[in-house]
Prior knowledge:
heterodimer; A: 289 residues; mainly alpha; two-stranded antiparallel sheet; B: mainly alpha; MetI-like fold; 2 domains; flat
Amino acid sequence: MKAWKEKFMQGVFFIAACTSVLAVALICVFLFANGIPAMKEIGFMEFLTGERWKPTNEIFGILPMIMGSIYVTAGAIILGVPIGILTSVFMAKYCPKKIYPVLKGATELLAGIPSVVYGFFGLVVLVPLIRDICQKFHWGGNGSSILTASILLGMMILPTIIGVTESAIRSVPAHYYEGALALGATHERSIFSVVLPAAKSGVVAGIVLGIGRAIGETMAVIMVAGNQARMPAGIVRGVRTLTANIVLEMGYAAGLHREALIATAVVLFVFILLINLSVSLLNRRAQHE
Amino acid sequence: MNKQTIGQKLRAYRRRPGSLILMLLVMLSAVATFAVLLFLIAYILIKGLPHLTPDLFALKYTSENASLMPALLNTIGMTALSLVIAVPLGIFAAIFLVEYAKRGNKFVEIIRLTTETLSGIPSIVYGLFGLLFFVTTLGWGYSLLAGAFTLAIMILPLIIRTTEEALKSVPDSFREGSFGLGAGKLRTVFCVVLPSAVPGILAGVILAVGRIVGETAALIYTAGTVPAVPKSVMGSGRTLAVHMYNLSSEGLYMDQAYATAVVLLVLVVGINCLSGYIAKKITKGNGNGEN
Lengths: 289, 291
């Protein structure tokens, strides 16, 4: 009786553990089964490198959206990474012990704020701000732009980068830093020429995770990026990202249009899988070092 | 470390301008990061608090009051449903990984890999999958249940990971003691290991609640956007975050959108503080001086 119960519960635990495998399998199957045929029908090259997206004319090229996602993500990385890494240096090496818990809580809060709230903030603060600046300098554009989305996403990836980089810096043995100090280097020199290079893999993993978050972000980007489905025309002009394309049109799409949107998600999914893969490779390398 | 006076520090920096610049950059970035957070919270509070009228909490949503009450109730229902599905699954999965699985088992590697993959998938992809699988293939339509299952898959990796950490931090002596007293494996897990891991698991669950409350993209095409409390779990209803998105994209109810943002922000901040508080209790309770 007892042995039977033990075996039964072990089976239950095992099945529960299989759920995540099942979920990933189902997600892959459903996305690929619905997306790949559409890609074939449209033509892989036309779909991936087509510069026009006109669902009403059955023209499905997602290059504008791919470029949109890449531009916006690149902008977020340019703005977010330096600030994120420097802030994590502050957290790990400068911050007085007394205020550390408060600041740590603040970064966690930054990660916890929902993306709609970020989006709303961007909509009511950043968009008018950028619009005014652009008008002053006659750059055109209406404020919803690559620049706006980049600034907002830069803010949103900060907690990811700060968290990962800080723990990477902290995992560097203290004698690296002390050794540098003993050789006469300043506090800053020890950190930036000895500690940070030693934490390189962790820092890169943080950046890659930030890229993943920026590419996958949907709601905040929709609210500030303008969402025009055409090739990006400049950093103060609007773009549409892959994620935005899905949310904006899924509500009314049917037939090939709907499948083309699912194929868009397949492209996004493959991007994310590649990013995940590089993160786990980086982590493995960091553990070996 | 030897103490330097501020004067000594300044003199040292004057001799090395490079270091001074780096130090200033570090300070500037830190100030920028926390200033952005403060500004965001202050801006939304100042703009939103005056619009928190009783009208906003009317039980029925009409085009006049843009009430957030139905959305709030839906959020609570959605959170409860998702947790009911995901928490047992996640805890059982973590028990398998920590207590039962043998080291270096190929299958365990696969489970870990898929869990990692799940935690990296963007929410819109979950939403699309929910639409294809729960809403269309299983024929549930736009419903709370479809939304809850979608969210359950989304928070599963978070719960598995935090539970795993919590179980691993239970000292082996607890297990050995229990075995020594003649308890079986199952009894040891449920009566000894799991109770001492509860605070850690709870902290993870609360983090998951935070994610559910803030989620939008995964819900628009699974739970739908009807601004009312559905009669059953098979009905469609919008959560607070979806409500917030609809208000701000319609652009007709900006005042109410500010007020909704306040409610959402307060909820999330509260949830975060609670999780942090519990996590702090654990480290104190263990008494082994980590952090």
